[in-house]
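One-letter codes give the sequence; the integers encode the fold. A sample entry reads:
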Amino acid sequence: MNLAKLFSGGKSAVAPGVTLKSSGSTAQLLVSRELAGPLTVPLKQEPLRGPGQHAFTVRMPQKGVRTAVGFVEQPRAEYLTPDYAGSKGYASFGGAGFIYPAKSMSKQTYGEGDSVECVLCFDTRRVTFSVNGRLAGSTPYPYATGYPAISVFPGDLRCEIAFE
């Protein structure tokens, strides 16, 4: 995945049916039915590194697709669940409540209108997820770098992203 090309000019077509508009501490991701199959979209060009923590919040005013939000060690195209991406190199939280690679089920789920916060703490080596301010759960993250990312399926989706 060519990140320099992806982030040039502030707006780019990631793939047919996927557009990412990025501007400093905010971004917008648009997905349509034209997307050929599941895809993970990195939201930053440069990797995050420790010490300390990094966070982003995704608000989904329109969500008609399956999604997973989280962090990847390196940019990748595979959807962030074990069925597609195996069990290494990422931490994700899906809308149905599954947290990977911890293989845990949260009591929190998310859908249209919800906000999901993802916090990567390099000091504790964990990623923590919250939905509308309520803790959903966490999973180990033993990697030295992280890219905020959203995995999507084809369909109608609009995400508004804020980086902290």
The helical segments are 3-6, 82-85.
